[in-house]
Design goal:
The complex is a heterodimer of chains A (368) and B (301). Helix content of chain A is 25%, strand content 31%. Chain A contains nine helices and 21 strands. In chain A, the strands form four sheets. In chain A, strands 6-7-8-3-9-10 form a six-stranded mixed beta sheet, sandwiched between helices. A six-stranded antiparallel beta sheet of chain A has the order 13-12-11-14-20-21. In chain A, α2 packs across α3, α2 runs parallel beside α4 and α3 crosses α4. The two termini of chain A are 44 Å apart. Chain B has 301 residues and is mainly α. Chain B has 15 helices and no strands. The radius of gyration of chain B is 24 Å and the shape is globular. The N terminus and C terminus of chain B are likely disordered. Classes of the chains: A alpha+beta (368), B mainly alpha (301).
Chain lengths: 368, 301
Amino acid sequence: MSTTVTFDSATRIYPGSTVPAVDSLDLEIDEGEFLVLVGPSGCGKSTSLRMLAGLEDVSSGRILIGDRDVTHLRPKERDIAMVFQNYALYPHMSVAENMGFALKIAGVHKSEIETRVREAAKILDLEPYLERKPKALSGGQRQRVAMGRAIVRQPQVFLMDEPLSNLDAKLRVSTRTQIASLQRRLGITTVYVTHDQVEAMTMGDRVAVLKDGLLQQVGTPLDLYDKPANMFVAGFIGSPSMNIGTFTVSGGHAHIGSAEVALPRVTTDALSGGEITLGFRPETLEAVAEGTAGAIEVEALVAEELGSDAFLYASLLGSDSERLSSEHIVARVAPRAVPQKGEKVWLRIAEGQLHAFDPTTGAVLPTG
Amino acid sequence: MATVVVPEQAPTGADRGVGRGRGRGREDRSLLASVGLHATLLACVFIALFPVVWVLLSSFKPQYAIQSTKIQLFVDPSFDNYRHVLMDTSFPRWFLNSVIVAAFTMVIGISMSATAGYAMSRFNFPGRRGLMWVFLVTQMFPVAILIVPIYTIMSKLHLIDTLPSLVIAYCTVAVPFCAWMMRGYFDTIPKELDEAAALDGLGPFGTFWRVVLPLARPGLAVTAFYTFLTAWGEVAYAIAFISSDKKLTMGAGLQQFVPQFNPQWDLLTPGAVIIMIPAAIVFFFAQKHLVAGLTAGGTKG
């Protein structure tokens, strides 16, 4: 039942615009895979999904579901089901009618519709609400009805367009797990769009990062986290985000504030100019004693105490503070004994945890 | 009676304005303000209702009492006038004609303006903007200017002195306005519903019929009301296009009761009352949608 999905140089240029909203997207999604499209707003992730749904024309390139070229097929001929951001439930139909509507249109027998709706309702805990109208449901229940409407169809592909963004924070976290586990259970290929990188990391088998209509990187959540292909992915994935800054290089060392951070040979070899963009994640910074080689001197500003963790927001001392892409350096420190405001702290980047990027192209440089 | 009330209007208006500014509720409005407010409202109600009530009362009076110089509310009330107008004149025939014309105008008007409004709201087609402008511009011509050219067209089509000529003429008045209104209403229905319907397997017409129209009921009610009223009370076109007595509609027919000098009030007043009844019934069914429909169309037009 489940199938592959292929974007083959799929491009979408909106009428009256010269810049493509999606620029030759190449993406292969495996059978039963949960793929998340993530990126900032306007990156083309929703457009890509809508192209797959058939709600948006494909300007050039192809889209395949399994071996079928669906590029110019109408939405109903594609055997897909979609969950919309605002759920798009039919307000004049009951929950049961909403869920069974597609089957009714397809001419499925009434008793069959009823069994399938009941089944889906059971999975989603919607049984008590089948006769209600959408307006009499809470946000979470509406979201589940929208899921149910997709499940009942038993489609080849699920499409979800930010289905959690209208839920409150707590419900979002629990629904996130529910959707992910439901998808694993049904084993139906799913394309999921979100702007929230935490959702992307926690739910997806693989994550595709888009920016300005261009695919930046595809990979498992940990791939993206550990081996970002460029500066954008490095900064986008992870929370709190990676510390990124552009520093001068001389004699195989990068000057971060007053610190001299040694760079691997392969990195300096790949470098063309006298500057390098470096990235290091908050948890790879360790507090060390003053005078340790390669230790960056910072001044503590705020510490966020989370109980299990603590994050220190600190300003870089020395003349290089404006070289950072954000205002602060963020470091994970031991909880329950955080540095006070104004305190000086020396931080060292753990061995092999440095990411290096070309300052002009943003592409990753080898670090060994 | 009216002269007693009007002088109190001035202080009332000022008082009410102040009261609202401070956000005072009903309980702490001063006695004077309260009296003034109610007096003003009563005056307005009186002004609005008086002609209608007077016609209603007159319709039950014998002929000699209607034009009497004495003001009397009831003089030998009876249904004699109604019996007379319904039995001895062509009035029932005119009533039937009006019902036919109004019903066809309503049905054709609704179907045309709903489909046109949906197209303007959802589809991008060449000439979409032009069409919308044309719909707007046609609203700017007064009926008086249009009667002659439309008459010429109708006579070329050999439709003069037929009921269809009226239906067509009324549709030209009602459809552009209603199409704009329906477009405004459709714009308030989320586009995602259309998309969900497309994914669920409906074509454009199925989406319109099974998803969008059921949700547009308030807008349709307003359109129905408007098209009905356009046709129901209309006089100018009816007089111009219809010449034979048997084909007149009510509005035009009533003119037959106004010979050269002395209007036949005993026939006019019951006729006017009877005209009101169907309009009131249509209003009764449409009214609960009326405000919602008009404002929803208006805010997002």
